[in-house]
Write a structure and sequence with these properties.
This protein is α/β, with parallel strands linked by helices. The protein has one domain: Rossmann fold (3-Layer(aba) Sandwich). Strands 1-3-2-4-5-6-7-8-9 form a 9-stranded mixed beta sheet, sandwiched between helices. The longest helix is centred in the last third of the chain and has 22 residues.
């Protein structure tokens, strides 16, 4: 538990670890790094961080403080709840008179890689449960609903937060069971909603077989009998064998918890209706760190679209993607957002795995608000250091000092949203409704607070969000 005194100087508090965001090196594959020696199956824990004034409140005379629940990103194969240190974020909620005495902050772990995302027809028929990581998160959220009042939190004011893969699972939580079951939260703040849509039984089966092969077994029963260390080793082999800047693991359509792709469920109104408000964000250049450096001409771009990007797509779909949605048009007047082959690939990747998910969520709620993060280089994941700003620090990509105006704007918006369901409040930069104009507020080093149009193209996102690619 944090106390007010302990939070006075959060810059003196050490992190559990520092995970630098990858930069862009067009001549080499971004390193996945070495396996974390602390990795263990015994990982399903929560952190509950509470200002003393909130904890000491008598819950009988108060509805309790807003609860902000953080789900980390990491491609569904790496990361942990300690990667983002919340001292400055919590203290900001305590110091602002609009949100004092502060929020209750909760961070959760969930199983990663093969431990949390094995799937496929044979796996399921053998007694396996797909999407185990989403069940992990669901159980944690249900625990919060039941017990957070003991820490001074209000179970009726829970905001699910997440970034990248964590936000992707958050989107799946909103649409879980096709909306037939109320969600154990009332609001969402999701940043750079990241996942690769996977409705393909063949792709799921392929990854399952890769894990069996890496573990030198032939079925799920044998896999379950292996010691944990052997499972970790097999998981690492599969993770590190994935194609450039991608991961084999992630949420899948399983017919139950995930009855269909989340974007389709949102369009059908099949999401938890007890969730009333959404605050969203994405970055100005989500795709460049994932764009393969060997995509240097039109032929290489088309080959990449064929494999590994859309390996199961019909030729008509491939032609549409390559020649209409992302044509080989490279000039500043095209309005397509790219001027080279590699930035063409980056725009396509960003739309597919992140931007269009964000747009689909924003269009679901009449009360949606959103911001566009363009500070530093605006790369995927770069904003997390601003969200969890703890004092003077360097931007993880540019290595220049973090813009404190932007960091505090993000923190204040999220906290205000958690308290009221609206990021707007006294003394804060105004955030417009997203609405049919797809308006966002811009955060950049040279222009903060300006209203701009979402840079995710509407036609492109209609293609991806209607799942016309399979």
């Amino acid at each position: 538990m944090f106390t007010q005194a302990w939070l006075k100087n959060p810059t003196n508090i050490s992190r559990f670890e520092d995970v630098p965001a990858p930069g862009v090196n067009p001549s080499a594959k971004p390193p996945l790094g070495q396996a974390d020696g602390r990795a263990t199956e015994d990982c399903l824990f929560l952190d509950v961080i509470v200002p003393r004034a909130v904890y000491n409140k008598t819950c009988a005379t108060s509805k309790g403080a807003p609860v902000m629940v953080w789900t980390f990103g990491g491609g569904n194969y790496e990361g942990n709840k300690g990667n983002s240190y919340p001292a400055g974020f919590v203290k900001r909620s305590m110091d602002n008179p609009n949100t004092a005495p502060g929020i209750v902050y909760v961070a959760m772990n969930y199983r990663l890689g093969a431990f949390g995302f094995l799937a496929g027809p044979t796996f399921t028929a053998s007694g396996g449960t797909p999407n185990g990581a989403i069940y992990d998160q669901r159980f944690a959220l249900e625990w919060i609903q039941k017990y957070i009042h003991l820490f001074g939190g209000d179970p009726n004011r829970v905001t699910l937060m997440g970034e990248s893969a964590g936000a992707g699972i958050g989107m799946h939580q909103l649409t879980a069971y096709g909306g037939t079951v109320p969600a154990p939260f009332q609001q969402i703040y999701l940043a750079s909603v990241g996942f690769s849509p996977n409705p393909y039984p063949f792709a799921q089966e392929h990854v399952y077989n890769l894990v069996l092969e890496a573990a030198n077994v032939t079925n799920l029963a044998e896999l379950r009998r292996l010691p944990s260390a052997a499972l970790v080793e097999a998981n690492n082999k599969v993770v590190f064998s994935a194609p450039y800047a991608s991961a084999y693991f992630g949420p899948v359509v399983d017919g139950t918890l995930v009855p269909q792709l989340p974007t389709l469920l949102l369009k059908q109104g099949k999401y938890a209706k007890n969730v009333k408000n959404a605050f969203l964000s994405h970055n100005s250049d989500e795709g460049i760190i994932f764009a393969p450096p060997n995509v240097q001409n039109d032929s290489a771009f088309n080959s990449y679209v064929h494999y590994p990007f859309l390996p199961d797509a019909q030729q008509a779909v491939l032609d549409l993607v390559e020649n209409h949605l992302y044509p080989a048009t490279y000039n500043n007047l095209s309005g397509l957002g790219y001027d080279t082959e590699i930035t063409r690939a980056a725009v396509m990747i960003a739309d597919y795995f992140s931007l269009c998910h964000t747009q689909g969520l924003a269009q679901t709620f009449n009360t949606s608000h959103a911001f566009l993060f363009a500070a530093g280089e605006g790369f995927h994941g770069e904003d997390t250091s601003y969200t969890f700003y703890n004092g003077p620090a360097l931007d993880p990509v540019t290595m220049r000092p973090i813009n404190t105006t932007i960091a505090y704007a993000i923190q204040d918006w999220i906290i205000q949203f958690g308290c009221t369901g609206d990021p707007n409040g006294p003394g804060l930069f105004p955030v417009p409704l997203y609405g049919p104009k797809r308006e966002m507020v811009l955060l950049s080093d040279n222009s903060t607070g300006k209203t701009v149009v979402d840079n995710a193209g509407y036609e492109r996102c209609e293609f991806w969000n209607n799942a016309l690619f399979y």
